[in-house]
Amino acid sequence: MDLLKSRLLPVIALFASVLFLYFRIPSSKQSFDSDCSLLAHDHFWIVSNRVVTPRGVTPGAVEVKAGRINTVKEGEYNQLLLQNEHVLDYGDAVVMPGLIDVHAHLDEPGREEWEGFSTGTKAAAAGGITTLIDMPLNSFPSTVSEETLKLKIEAAKKKLYVDVGFWGGLVPENAFDTSALDKLLMAGALGLKSFMCPSGINDFPMTNSTHIKEGLKVLAKYKRPLLVHAEVVLESENNIELSSDESDPRSYTTYLKTRPPSWEEAAIRELKDASEETRLGGNAEGAHLHIVHLADSRTSLDLIKEAKSGGSSLTVETCPHYLAFSAEEIPDGDTRFKCAPPIRDEANRQSLWEALLEGHIDMLSSDHSPSIPDLKLFDEGDFLRAWGGISSLQFVLPITWSYGKAYGITLNQLTAWWSERPAKLACQANKGAIRSEMDADFVVWMPDVEFELDENYDIHHKHRNISAYLGKRLSGKVLATFVRGNLVYSEGKHSPAACGALILAKQ
Ligand SMILES: [Zn+2]
């Protein structure tokens, strides 16, 4: 028996090396860089018992060729058809469109000690995110002109493990300068972002509704969106007298009181007016207004519903941290949970879920917004002075799934919130669904596999200890991530080279 083994092994090894060589040869004429993928070929089939297509969850086979989805066979298909093909059979694991995160701060150039294109997109790939749109602030300089967008593009080259696009900034300096905005948009910004309150970043000052209306007028020509941080500082409430036991800066309640829901409400009331210009026949018909990270599920949400039903082109996102956490559970001094607008009470958290399930909240985004740990002031635990921003990029899929299970969420809803609607917001017609002709962007994951997000977990963000999710038990393990047919992440490994594309808007 041993003799047989010793004779057979070299033959098997030779056979395997021939197979390997065979698969190293690109099957299409298009150039294929094998360093970009953990898979050595660009024509293959992905098979699973749970493929999420626009029609539902079905057993299926997806043919990938030169980065695109060539064919999708739904339901029972003839296995014989795949006999001579290269097949990746994922069994009962779910194959879904890759996630599209329209709100992440990668902080490069200028603050790469906070995050960075390489670490951020590695974390995205490990989390099943295949496209990420970077925010124009927290990097330095902020992306508010053609020149600063070019700096971003230069800094991102050869560092991207997933596809990345950029929002430009709408600030007072460019709001009335149509030609500056034209240049920024013509250079490829997918849309603009502005703040209605101080952003915390010196070269990204806040805008008022006049600036916003001007921005919308320019965006109308390009049919691109304006994303707005909706909080205005209400002076009357800014100077709230805090009683002595309410003024402890280590208490989360103190922070919550300094940033009440009325700030969101006041901003959204102004945005509701501004959004009327996006209606048919309005001054900004063709533009779109998108409210980022909604935290208040009460009056603010009612105003959003009114704007939508009145015919405004308006959408809204919320983030996993508003759906996962409530103010009551945030420990004193734990500034990992600080963000703006703040995480509100438990009843508010539950109504955010209801609004999402009922379609009043359109989509989800990470708002991954890290900083160096020093700025979180962990020793002091001072909520008023610590840097705000929640670090979560790698975990948004398991977080949404783990906390959403109690609300009976479905895989198709996950796809709508994380892929289809974000693709539409960022005008990415080739992304967001498993359908022929679309980009071959997938996440393969096992919803029922649980894991501890503890110190042994492989986290790719730059600073692991600033994440508010550390210590949580989550459900949903990402097995593999494909970006335009490249297997960029599989079982803990990333592709050798960073071959994500820069997504720049075309004229
Ligand atoms: Zn943000």
Condensed summary:
The chain has 507 residues and is an alpha/beta fold. The chain is 29% helix and 21% strand. The protein contains 14 helices and 19 strands.
Question: Could you please describe the fold and organization of this structure?
Answer:
The chain has one domain (97-429, 446-473): TIM Barrel (Alpha-Beta Barrel). Helix content is 29%, strand content 21%. It is built from 14 helices and 19 strands. The strands form three sheets. Strands 1, 2, 3, 4, 5, 15, 16, 17 and 18 form a nine-stranded mixed β-sheet that branches. The protein is globular and about 70 Å long. Residues 1-30 have low confidence and may be disordered. Zinc ion binds next to loops.
Ligands bound, unique: zinc ion
Distance between the termini: 69 Å
Tally the helices: what do you get? 14
The backbone outline, from C-alpha atoms, is: globular
Give the number of domains.
1
Strand content: 15-25%
**What is the average per-residue confidence, as pLDDT, rounded to a whole number?**
92
How many strands, which pairing sense, and closed or not: the largest β-sheet?
Answer: 9 strands, mixed
How much helix is in the residues?
A: 25-40%
The CATH topology comes to TIM Barrel
List descriptors.
507 residues; binds zinc ion; metal-binding; alpha/beta; allantoinase; 21% strand; disordered N terminus; 14 helices; nine-stranded mixed β-sheet; single chain; six-stranded parallel β-sheet; TIM Barrel; globular
